[in-house]
Structure formats: C-alpha cells, structure tokens
Amino acid sequence: MTSRNRILSQLPSRGEAPQSPRFTVNGYEADTTEVVEIGDMSNKYGIGYLLANGSQGVIFNDGTSLTKQPEGALIYYDKTTVEYASVLALPHELKKKTDILRLAQKNFKKETLITYPSQVIVKKYVKFEHSTIILKLSSGTLQFFWPDGQLSLRSGSIVHIDTPATIADGAQTQHLGKLTFPVIQALVEDIVTVTDAQLVQAMAFAASRMKMLVEPTGCLAIAAALNQAVPIKGLRVGLLVSGGNIDLARFAQLVQGD
After folding, report:
1. What is each CA distance from 108 to 15, 30, 46, 184, in whole angstroms?
2. Which residues partner with 232 through β-bridges?
3. What is the DSSP string of the chain?
4. Where are the domains of the chain?
5. Mean pLDDT computed over every residue of the chain
6. Contact 203, 254 (CB under 8 A)
7. Which CATH superfamily is domain 3-155 in?
8. Considering the entire predicted model, what is its pTM?
9. In this predicted model, what pLDDT tens digit does every residue of 221-243 receive, in sequence order?
10. CA distance to 11, 64, 213, 254, per residue, from 134 (Å)
11. What is the pLDDT of residues 122-172, one digit of tens each?
12. pLDDT at 79 over 90
C-alpha cells in the first residue's frame, strides 16, 4: 500500500456534504468551500490557505485560525468562532497573527477567484512525512495536499512548502521553477511520492541486482516502481536512474540501517 493510500485508509468515512456552486479555479474545478492553494509555513507559524471563494487564512500551529473573507470581515477560531468586521476591530493580542496572515496572502493568486459568500474556515491540519498535509474544514470536508511538485501540478499553480526532511537531498526543494513548471504541466500526467525507507530499499536493489551505486534522489523512480506507487504491473516501463553522488560509508550506513 502506498503512503497516500495508507493515510486515506486510516481516515473515517463521512456522508455526502451539501453541494456548493462550482467554478474553474487555477485550472481545475472547485466549489466555493474548497481550499485551492496553500502556503506551508509550519516550521514557524502554520499553514496559509486560500479558498475558492476568495477567503484567505492561516491555521496556526497552536490550533487557532484566522480567516479574512472577501468583503473584509475576519473570523477567528479558537475552539469557538468569533467574527470581526475588519482588521481594525481585532483585539491587540491578535496583531501578530494578522501579520502572519498578510505574509501568507502575498503568494496567493487572488485574480483567478470568484467571490462568493461563505463562512467556511480551516479548523485543523495534520502534516505527515514528506510534507503531505491534510486540512479539516468547518464544513466537514477533508482536503489532501501533497509535496510541492505534486501539489503544484494538481492545483495548476506553483506551491511553496517548507524544506522536506528526507535523505533525498536533490528533492529538498521548496517549490518548482517558473521555467520547468510549464513543461511539467504539458508533459507529466502525475507526480507520486515515496518514503525514505523505500528509497533505501531501492538503493539496495540497484546495488545487488543492477550492480549500480545510486544516491537516494537517483532512486526515486526505482522506489516508486518497486512499491507500485503507480499501476505498472504487467507493463514495460522505462525508469530514469541518475546520480551516484554518495560516498561508500554513507551508502553502507543507510543500507545497513545504522
């Protein structure tokens, strides 16, 4: 089972939520209560988010959230919700959180949005290995966001995340490049993820079966194939295996599990 499917299998099922109007936002169809873009600031502050209706907010690491609606009103959540007419009406102790909200807003593509009234906010987030993020909305919706390349391809815009904690140092990027992203959109169908343990397994496989010494980043495609991250069983596929930038001591340490 892939890491994505494992996470999905652990979540409770839920009934059908009421349908909201749907629009095409940043290249894909979304309803007004869906998050269409996030900014991962969880190393310091939390997760910034942009809803399809134009609301922008931050779910903070302390479990609170602050959401600014398109008309300017703000909703602060701390176990219960309190609405303020404008930034000027916020209590002084929320000033720092307002500054963090402004920081998150800088990267959002507001010009692509449809303004529509909604009081949906993000109430909780969970961040898994390799920057996979789940958001729980007040509407009951659970939304999944995967690492920068995967999220950017699926959302239609470049997404910024914190530096991933992984042995694959060549994949420790915070966002895709402006020149490469259009190429990926045109030629790539999907992006999948693997774990560090699966990378080590792939390194050992390449050394023992293929007689190749490959660095962790170079084994990404092998790891995805070995663990069926994409359905390739019974097919002839080509894998790019590129990169041997690892010394023998480090290779042995990883493969032997020291």
Report:
1. 31, 16, 16, 21
2. none
3. --HHHHHHHTSPP--PPPP--EEEETTEEEETTSEEEEEEETTTTEEEEEETTS-EEEEETTS-EEEE-TTS-EEEEESEEEEESSGGGS-GGGHHHHHHHHHHHTT--GGG---------EEEEEE-GGG-EEEEETTS-EEEE--HHHHHHHHTS----PPP--S-GGG--SS--TTHHHHHHHH--------HHHHHHHHHHHHHHS-----TGGGHHHHHHHTTSS--TTS------------HHHHHHHHHT-
4. 3-155, 196-256
5. 80
6. yes
7. POLO box domain (3.30.1120.30)
8. 0.52
9. 999 999 888 888 889 999 999 89
10. 10, 16, 36, 29
11. 999 888 765 678 888 888 888 777 667 877 887 787 877 777 778 888 888
12. no
Q: pLDDT digit string (tens) for 190-211? A: 888 888 888 999 999 999 999 9
Q: At a CB cut-off of 8 Å and minimum separation 6, what does 190 contact?
A: 150, 153, 230
Name all contacts of 253-257 with Cβ < 8 Å and 24+ positions apart. Answer: 254/167, 254/200, 254/203, 254/216, 255/200, 255/203, 255/204, 255/207, 257/200
